[in-house]
Amino acid sequence: MFEHRSLKIAFYGKGGIGKSTIASNLSAAFSKLGLKVLHIGCDPKGDSTRNLVGKRMPAVLKVLQEKGNFIEEKDIIYNGFNGIACVEAGGPEAGVGCAGRGISTMVEELEYLGVFKRRWDIIVYDVLGDVVCGGFSVPMREKFVDVVFIVSSSEFMSLYAANNIIRSVNKLFNYKGNRFGGIIHNRRSEDSNNESMEYFAQISNTKVLENIPFCKEISYSELEGKTVIERFPQSEISGIFMNLAEKIVRNDICSIPKPLDDTEMEQLSRKLLEIRIKSLKG
Amino acid sequence: MKTTWKLIPPFASDYSGVCSVLYELNSLIILFSPGGCSHSIVETDEIRSFNIATIFSSSLNDIDVIMGAEDRFITNAIYLIKNHPGVDFVSILGTPVSAITGVNFNRIARELQEKTGLPVVVFNTNGFESYVSGIYDALLKLGETFMVDSGKKNNRINILGYSPLNIGNKAHLNELISALESKGFEVMIFPGAGIFMKEIKRASESILNLVISPEGLGLAEYMQMRFEVPYLMQLPVGINGMIVLLHEIERRTGIEFGDYIKAEYTIDCSVKFNTASDTKVLILGQPLLSVAVGECLKMDFGIEKVSIATHLKRKSMVGHIYSNSMFSNVNFFEDEDDVINCMHGMDIIIADPLYRKIICEGGERTIFIPLPHIGLSGRKFADLGYEYIGRGGFAYIKSYIVP
Amino acid sequence: MEFTDNLLANGFFKKAFQKESCEEIINIALCIPGIHVLGVGPESCLRVLYFRALKQGQNDRFHMLGISNDDMVTGKHIDLTKIALQEIMSYKSDNVKAVIIYLSCSDILQGSNLENVISVIEKKYQRPVRLLKRGPLTKRRILPKERLGNLFCEILDKYVNEAYVKEKGNKSAVNILGEEKLSAQCELFKLLKEKGFDQIQEFTGFERFDQFMDLINGRFSVVTHKFALNIAEYLEKSYGIPYCFVSSKYRMKDIESNYRILSESLNVELNYREASNNFRTMLDSVKRDVFNKKIAVGLGERTFEIAGALAELGFCIQAVFVDTVTSTEKKLINFLFRQNKDMRLFSIPSINPVQYESEFNQIDIAIGERAIHYCSNAKKVQHKEVYGVGFENISRLVGEIL
């Protein structure tokens, strides 16, 4: 399916929007499709892999801090659900240090240990919030990532962040063709609606890959440190993740997105208000 | 517009500037750095003996910087300070790495101060600025931190703004100091050497601050506002420069210099030098010194066509410091080609010897008068026997113009 | 093992000592004619590089792009780097064979993405542009100097094609791969010439770019500094040129091993015994009372090795000044204590100069800037290592002590 070449994908999105939930569920779904998955959490919080490993695992940077250069693969790669290899970058506590550089160092360290040379079918990067500095864009760079996906709700600030990420993707790949895979709509609340999201996708010349509904299976499984794929494999939501995983693996990259400028963003906010009022009336 | 530089180096950095001010004080100087930042001080910028100062630099590795090393810094600094019990205060300096990662120096200083009982002063340097802002901030900060109002005035004059980076070896000031001391003034080159803690308490007793570089202006303004010490910014280059300065001090303090001037500075200025009326001179260097040298050429040697240039970047702090109307005739170049071009067709060039190699390309007849600028060329030419103040300066320039 | 204070032997703080030059790699980066270097970073970082280049007369190929704080945080410096590369490529363009972009800590922290810019410039000018990340933040797995060695290999690879190999591949010269230009009188040259290796091409001594390309035309490489190990390995792998590694040494057994390696690799007899006898004779002529003098050693990286070498010869090592201790040095420390149980090991940040003043005053000879700084009454020996495969360095040091 991949001609011995792994597919490398990254999820970006506004902080707290549910990237880790979606990324970990998708990794679980990929593994169910029979793929060999490497899941890399790139957030100083270090909780991307919790649902796959069942607990918080030691972060690469913490291990480096404690063990210096004498680290081995087993110190930083944990075996998660269904054989998924999990890595957590980690980083400094809030307010100190340089988290961005931490991501680059983690990537360099994995390279040094030869982790990327192994035969993975798919490598998943779950990256902190917005592209805050150069370090966080490392996973987005050509060498590491084939396709970037954005996780967003239809709230304005989430779309605002999504728009910035689209801009970064275009900038980073401007001469290498498009590497944007589309938006995954996470309907975390009743307020998040498909119409708003579709509207944003349309005007920024991209597409919504899937609408993930708000459902209690997700929160129950998270409380148990599991993905819905593991905990409720037969549920409707698991089906949605499995579908989405297949779509991603088919790897049909959508058209080159066009980020909105400031005026267009303002227009978007008015349009979102209109849609909201209409739905309230409806 | 060219973006790169090749022939001329950047100026010494802000943290080099701060170090140059702290150097002779009894302070433990600590750089927050991955390690390499002290090299510029050690290899080029400092011209004094290294036995005087106690400079330490942290050596952070990548993981320290990523995960934050403030706590490690504090723990180690406490031991360092305990092993240097004789110091008066601790100075902490920032570098590019601390600027980018936003290290919380105030917290570090607070904790160190609490745990060691010594005053800890933070200098917010970042390595992106030049020595100009470093010296300016350092002098001001020392003043703000340690000066007290002694409530009285005596015949004391502080010289503000000195650093080897802008003035060179302290011995250049000897002639000026002798002139002032001849009339009973007590002169202190702020912040003094070694005796800082004792002298600083008396700094506010001065009747006048003599500012010899714009880097001293911040402190002068502060002292004027806080302790009502008036100031005067002037560098007395050549005979006329010294006469003008002494008259001005006379006017401000009421102490007469007439006989001294007569005895020491009545070199026959009526002798006209063999300089043609259209002799074109370029002075490249520290702006205040250049302006003063220009004035000396005009008044002592009758040379009128003088242009002045520097490649100090008039951005951020430097822009503010050099905003004085005194510098309105100074060209601030930001492009190396502009500096090279302005040297063409000059009869006399007065500049740091590093510029000499640029002139060689097609200016064999140009007279080059070396005037080292330590903030630019470091210790490379610091020992050249050059002078600029008073009679010494006059004789030095004359030796080139009238061989 | 006893420290004056264990807590600070962790190397967190290092004291600044006056030095002519802290060994840096800018001079190596600039050592091949035709290869230009673009330094990008805060002016404070570029300044020191300028003066290092100036000392070696290399400024003609060193370009500086000073970055302001604003440019750095807004990422504008990436566009500026592109313009700067264009300026260099168009400057006497035939002479520019390759450009190395020399980055410092700030850019490494920012993770500045220069790959796009490099790829555009390489395509436009058809010449290699390489990125060198250096500085204390880039030493985790591979030292910047070793990384630089790899860059030279990549540049060589771009220029040497099969036709060139066919035309030039006559295998006659010995390649000397190291970081400093060796003196014509050095032992290595003498040994090579004695054994008939007349044609020598030195990595740091090339006057033209094509001489650099001729490295592939060597029959053998002698690596004199580990920086060049990667280059030697590359030449062996790609062009079948074998190599050996012999670095400067001070201790007798290490010097003997240098002779052995060299003689095995070149397949010639080298007379270690004679060299060692000459050295011994010199040592025997030294007045015996010198061996009772108290010596302090503190000169950075090689402190323990030099102290150990002197102790082996019977000198009295009384004090050693260090910033930090590596695990491999612990054996040497034990040896030093066995030689002189009263020896003091000072971790520099924990020295309280007043407390130890009387001890420092008893030192007769201070070797290296660190020891000289503290032991003001002692005879000052500012020893500087130059490359020597044999007894050159230790002989010179003993001479300096006398």
Main sheet: strands, sense, barrel of chain B: 5 strands, parallel
Structural class of chain A: alpha/beta
Overall number of structural domains of chain B: 3
Q: Identify the overall geometry of chain A.
A: globular
What is the CATH superfamily label of chain A? P-loop containing nucleotide triphosphate hydrolases
Radius of gyration of chain A: 18 Å
Task: Count the beta strands of chain B.
Answer: 13
Q: What is the fold's blueprint, element by element?
A:
The complex is a heterotrimer of chains A (282), B (403) and C (402).
Chain A: E1 7-12, H1 19-32, E2 37-42, H2 50-53, H3 60-67, H4 73-76, E3 78-79, E4 85-88, H5 99-112, E5 122-127, E6 147-152, H6 156-172, E7 180-186, H7 194-203, E8 208-212, H8 216-223, H9 228-231, H10 236-250, H11 262-281
Parallel strand pairs in A: 1-5, 1-6, 2-4, 2-5, 6-7, 7-8
Antiparallel strand pairs in A: 3-4
Chain B: H1 14-22, E1 27-31, H2 39-45, E2 54-58, H3 62-67, H4 70-82, E3 89-93, H5 96-101, H6 105-116, E4 120-123, H7 131-146, E5 156-160, H8 164-167, H9 174-181, E6 186-189, H10 196-200, E7 208-211, H11 217-227, E8 231-233, H12 238-253, H13 258-264, E9 281-284, H14 287-301, E10 306-310, H15 316-321, E11 330-332, H16 336-342, E12 348-351, H17 356-359, E13 367-370, H18 374-377, H19 390-401
Parallel strand pairs in B: 1-2, 1-3, 3-4, 5-6, 5-7, 7-8, 9-10, 9-12, 10-11, 12-13
Chain C: E1 13-15, H1 26-29, E2 35-41, H2 43-55, E3 62-66, H3 69-74, H4 76-90, E4 98-103, H5 105-110, H6 115-125, E5 129-133, H7 144-159, H8 162-168, E6 173-177, H9 187-194, E7 200-202, H10 209-213, E8 218-223, H11 229-239, E9 243-245, H12 252-266, H13 272-284, E10 294-297, H14 303-312, E11 316-322, H15 330-339, E12 344-347, H16 357-361, E13 365-367, H17 369-374, E14 379-381, H18 392-401
Parallel strand pairs in C: 2-3, 2-4, 4-5, 6-7, 6-8, 8-9, 10-11, 10-13, 11-12, 13-14
Helix pairs in contact in C: 4-6, 7-11, 14-15
